[in-house]
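Researcher: Sequence of Response regulator follows. Predict its structure.
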Amino acid sequence: MRYERLRVLLVDDNHHMRALLAEVLRAIGVREIHEAGDGVEGMQMLRDHPVDVVMTDLSMPAMDGLEFVRLIRSSADSPNLMVPVIVVSGRSTAKAVLETRDAGANEFLAKPITARGVIDRIHQVVEHARPYVKIEGYFGPDRRRRQDPAHAAPWRRAGDEALPKAAAAEG
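Model: Prediction complete. Tokens:
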């Protein structure tokens, strides 16, 4: 991967965390790094600068990471609906991870961060990007991480088989 070509936006209310992330990014060769202190400022930065990857904190005042990701994915004036978003958070509970996924984030990185973690997440969103899907109430990367080639049924969720047979045949 040519890290020197990446343009990254860091959104975090903690200046020290932004500085740490920026140092890790510079160490791997990223040259263009933009910073914002919250989601409101982050949206303005997205409008003012083309970026390839967004890294945002989950917990911020004014506009938290979930609101920020939802705004990127669903706002009529979003400058880039499909920009890869990596959420960085000290709250790494299953609930927090699922909330970020359901908001439209591509990846989740738990704090404390490591250089390897940052590199892995960037590599994942750039080199192994998942397709984007649009369904009622959601736009973002496909939440399924893998496709099962042995899956022959028309539905993908447990309980779908309980639907009327006519609906299953149409699916």
